[in-house]
Design a protein that fits this description.
This protein is α/β, with parallel strands linked by helices and 332 residues long. The protein has helices spanning 9-24, 46-56, 71-77, 82-91, 127-136, 156-163, 202-209, 280-296, 312-325; strands at 2-5, 29-31, 38-42, 65-67, 96-101, 118-122, 140-141, 169-172, 183-188, 191-196, 240-242, 253-256, 270-273, 301-304. The strands form two sheets. The chain has a ten-stranded mixed sheet with strand order 1-8-2-3-7-4-6-5-9-10, with helices on both faces. A hairpin with a 6-residue loop joins β2 (29-31) and β3 (38-42).
């Protein structure tokens, strides 16, 4: 791990260059923002994004915020309705994330958005991170740079203590100016909803948007106010999921792992191996894409290979369990 202090011009330049190189290798970088330090990966690289979940020890795939350099770059990844545009113009760069419909062709990995049709976008104000984003030219997926269940880090030392072994580069810009997490507003289907209160007050947002918030879709509070499973737009396959499958029934699709060949695999309507070499990070990166592809085969059931519960396997199984529980005719 290399740490660069950004108050020194030469170190700042060296730090940005080292960060860009590390991101290009699919590695993680700790970035300062005005709210809290972020654990960043290239959002377009699914395997790199999987590394975020491993490093944080997250038991679930929460959608991650994509950090971008400016509104123009944000609009390559999301569709901004008039309210979202007003808010972006009023508060960016700044501590506001806008959740908007994800654009077709956005290169942001399915793992970063947890398979949702929406994407959370943010333009941070912190100058070193802005410079990094502008030069990197691609969005950075970044949750707070703490291990799951720990407090969000507001100093580089907090990040080093928690995640020093997992990051290649730490950009140390001193204590975060805002120090609490950002406000998250969803602009979807003509509604404006407060998903998480944070660095910008509710009243300031309503004034800038010239409208009041619509009711939030679910009660929230604490660390995980908007678990993906609480979102109406949450991606759940149309097909039923059957976990721990070792035999395939005719017409089922098969979601495999580690090259396993269940009995009667030749009867499967479609087959996708999440990682032929049994790599759980690769499997995580492929998961949402695989579910979409197998769903598109028209199979009524997707049989899923046994997946080990260790490491990222726990998050994969959690996500599959939720998907299994969330058939539209079962979920309310
Ligand atoms: O200040 C912050 O919020 C920091 C800095 C690094 O940006 N980020 C952060 O991320 O704390 P995280 O992962 O701890 O929280 C992000 C929140 C999660 O609650 C997630 O569910 C929500 O953003 N989120 C992201 N994309 C979303 C989407 N498409 N729909 C709903 N919620 C979304
Ligand atoms: Mg957090």
């Amino acid at each position: 791990m290399q740490l660069f202090k950004t108050d020194n011009a030469a170190q700042r330049e060296a730090g940005i260059a080292a960060a860009i190189a590390a991101l290009g290798r699919g590695r993680l970088v700790a970035i300062p923002t005005e709210t809290v330090y972020g654990l960043a990966a290239d959002a377009t690289n699914g395997r790199a994004v999987a590394g975020i979940y491993t490093a944080k020890g997250r038991p679930r795939f929460n959608p991650l915020i994509a950090h971008v350099a400016d509104l123009a770059e944000a609009r390559e990844h999301g569709d901004f309705d008039p309210t979202a545009l007003k808010l972006a113009e009023a508060f960016w760069p700044g501590p506001l994330t806008l959740v908007v419909p994800r654009r077709a062709g956005s290169g942001i990995s399915d793992l970063a958005t947890a398979g949702l049709d929406s994407v959370g976008l943010r333009v941070p104000a912190e100058p070193t991170t802005r410079a990094l984003l502008a030069r990197h030219g691609r969005p950075l997926a970044a949750p707070s740079a703490n291990r799951s269940g720990h407090v969000s880090p507001t100093r580089a030392g907090d990040v080093v203590a928690d995640l020093g072994a997992s990051v290649d580069v730490v950009l140390d810009a001193g204590p975060c100016r805002v120090g609490i997490e950002l406000t998250i507003v969803a602009c979807l289907d003509g509604h404006m909803r407060l998903l998480r209160p944070g660095g910008i007050a509710r009243g300031a947002i309503e004034a800038a948007a010239d409208r009041a918030f619509d009711a939030a879709p679910a009660p929230h509070g604490g660390e995980a106010p908007m678990a993906p499973g609480m979102l109406a737009s949450h991606y759940a396959p149309r097909a039923m999921l059957r976990l721990d499958a070792t035999v395939i029934a005719p017409g089922e699709a098969y979601l495999g792992f580690a090259g396993a060949r269940p009995e009667a695999i030749e009867k499967a309507r479609a087959v996708y191996d999440l990682s032929a070499r049994g790599d759980l990070a690769e499997a995580a990166a492929n998961l949402f894409h695989a579910l979409r592809l197998l769903d598109a085969s028209g199979a009524a059931t997707i049989a899923v290979a046994p997946i080990p519960a260790e490491g990222l396997g726990e998050a994969i199984l959690d996500r599959l369990g939720r998907a299994a529980a969330q058939r539209p005719d079962v979920a309310c």
